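Hi team,

Below is the intake form for HTH lysR-type domain-containing protein from Achromobacter piechaudii. Please confirm the fields before the structure is written into the shared record.

FORM ID: S-0412
PROTEIN: HTH lysR-type domain-containing protein
ORGANISM: Achromobacter piechaudii
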Amino acid sequence: MELRQLRYFVRVVEAGSIGRAAMSIGMVTSALSQQISRLEGELSTRLLQRSASGVVPTDAGLAFFRQAQLALRHADDAVQAAQQARLAGHVSVGLSSTTAAILGAPFLQAMNERYPDIRLHLVEALSGHLADMLNGRLLDLAIVFQAESARRWSIMPLLDEPLFLCARRDMPELPAGQTTRLADIAHLPLVLPSPRHGLRALVNNAFLQLGQTPRVVAEVDGLSLLMDVVQLGSAATIQPSSATARIAPGQLHMARIDDAQLFRPNLLVSLSDDELSPAALAARLVLADVSRTLAREGKWAVVTLHDS
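The structure came back. Fields below:
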């Protein structure tokens, strides 16, 4: 099997027609069709379902298509790195909104300083969506908070961060002090992310262990909008320490929740090592290094810092 065969197959699937694909790459249709048939012969399986209107991938073809895209991207990155004689390529990294608040800009800056020829693509999304994107090979790396949906992931525990109660200072019945307990804030109206969000699952489980249910009055799946709602003063929220990076000092009352079982683990996950390009491997090391540096310098409050 040759790289050009992979390129031919990917182009056919993208075009939805052998004829259109042949025209786009300057080949005779019969020659391209022969290449696809030869590829199917080598794999001993049918990759395309042919019809009068074009072609669509079979289940085997779709699986092969996804891996072929990954292989071609790595091959292109390798060529670029060799041509420039230094590490280069493209890396996609996923961060949740809260993690991006504290880690996104420092990570981007560190990558630009250490590997200026690596093109970085940062994606901000819910942790559950990041897991789906990683499984779909749309991301190389991500920081998530649970790994139940892992499919051949490489998983590196980074740190565990505490949770904070955040509310406007004049909110009624707000407990005083820089620390609090979950049982002492169970009566407060809360605005939280929806159950799809990993943070919501943590909070729900913590209340469940106390035999209580959080008093959720609104669900908001965007950090900026959620904090705008908190600023109105009718509801508080529970957020990890990373989310507080975008809160100006004195802007809100923030009390660390000291329940021992309530913290958010941060897991650096990636495709398996044999699937990662050299650029992605380098980005993974930088992401871990920047995370731990922020924690050691006191810029990211943590419960536990896991060594590499």
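SUMMARY LINE: The mean pLDDT is 88.

Thanks, M.
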